[in-house]
């Protein structure tokens, strides 16, 4: 008989209490600096963009300003493109991709669209290279009025005045081997459930929304990214992660059922990226490049088909 290992925090079959969440938090290690990696990069963008602080997190003895980067000379008559990264802090290419996009694309969209970029939604998680926030909350399941987590609430409040203005929202994510080795086992333990091992798609793919499909939009992004890194194939059942692959490199399900960040704006063009930097067939640099190509392609397509 094979006995599945249990996560080292908690009791099998029992959801975590505040005590287990505190134990989990104390087990986390700070690996990198939000100030150095993100805030300093945003400061360097100030000559070319407007920078706004839309909130502040207070975790332990640490304070994290929540920052957004906006088009200078914002034009209320133009639509808005929202780009979000770091909703899950450990997904490095999302954060770096958002920052790289801002560095590379300066005046291309002047008079066409307003850019609103939030490079790192979950800064504590970014520093600790973890999926969850300080309170063991998965931010990318909290984008609804009753959701938990200050990160999601702050972003919802910040973007609410722009509802109806959004043409596009691209949410930049990645999948790593730690999903199977750490984060999914931790989730099962936190929720008092049994851990069922899964597989990680090998390559880049997109998550489309059954309520806002636009497979032509998704296909245009896949075609552009395929020149940068490989696209994840469907499994023998035509699925990825038990979701149907509806076109090359695109899975689709009801994003609202999971309260994903991609449902935040109600924009006509939305997608969620997933890259796989642990694949032997790519590099972290190529994954960051894939995120930049995604954003550029998505904006160009949305503007052409609005």
UniProtKB/TrEMBL annotation:
Checking InterPro entries in the record gives: AstE_AspA_cat, Peptidase_M14
UniProt cross-references to SUPFAM superfamilies, sorted A to Z: Zn-dependent exopeptidases
Q: Write the record's keywords in alphabetical order, separated by commas.
A: Hydrolase, Metal-binding, Zinc
Look up the domain of life of the source: Bacteria
Entries under Pfam families matching the protein? AstE_AspA_cat
Whether Metal-binding counts among this entry's keywords is yes
Gene Ontology molecular-function annotations: hydrolase activity, acting on ester bonds; metallocarboxypeptidase activity; zinc ion binding
Cofactor list: Zn(2+)
Query: One biological-process term from Gene Ontology?
Result: proteolysis
Every copy of the Peptidase M14 domain together lies at: 30-306
Annotated family: Belongs to the peptidase M14 family.
- From the Swiss-Prot or TrEMBL record, give the protein name: M14 family metallocarboxypeptidase
């Amino acid at each position: 008989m094979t006995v599945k290992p249990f996560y080292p925090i908690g009791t099998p079959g029992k959801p975590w209490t505040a005590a287990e969440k505190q134990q989990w938090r104390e087990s986390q290690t700070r690996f990198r600096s939000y100030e150095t990696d993100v805030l300093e990069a945003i400061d360097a963008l100030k000559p070319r963009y407007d920078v706004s602080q839309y909130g502040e997190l207070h975790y332990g003895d640490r304070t994290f300003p929540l920052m957004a980067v906006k088009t200078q000379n914002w034009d209320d008559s133009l639509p808005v493109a929202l780009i979000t990264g770091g909703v899950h802090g450990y997904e490095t290419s999302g954060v770096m991709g958002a920052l790289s996009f801002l560095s590379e694309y300066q005046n291309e969209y002047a008079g066409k669209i307003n850019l609103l970029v939030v490079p790192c939604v979950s800064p504590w998680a970014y520093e600790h290279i973890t999926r969850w926030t300080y309170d063991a909350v998965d931010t990318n399941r909290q984008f609804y009025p009753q959701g938990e987590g200050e990160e999601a609430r702050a972003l919802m409040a910040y973007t609410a005045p722009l509802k109806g203005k959004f043409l596009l929202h691209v949410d930049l994510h990645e999948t790593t081997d730690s999903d199977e080795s750490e984060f999914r086992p931790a989730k099962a333990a936190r929720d008092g459930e049994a851990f069922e091992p899964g597989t990680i798609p090998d390559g880049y793919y997109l998550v489309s929304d059954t309520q806002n499909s636009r497979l032509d939009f998704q296909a245009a992004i896949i075609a552009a990214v395929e020149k940068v890194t490989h696209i994840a194939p469907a499994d023998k059942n035509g699925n990825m992660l038990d979701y149907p692959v509806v076109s090359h490199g695109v899975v689709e399900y009801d994003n609202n059922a999971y309260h994903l960040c991609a449902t935040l704006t109600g924009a006509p063009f939305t997608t969620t990226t997933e890259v796989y930097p642990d694949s032997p067939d790519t590099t972290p640099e190529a994954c960051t490049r894939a995120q930049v190509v995604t954003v550029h392609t998505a904006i160009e397509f949305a503007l052409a088909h609005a």
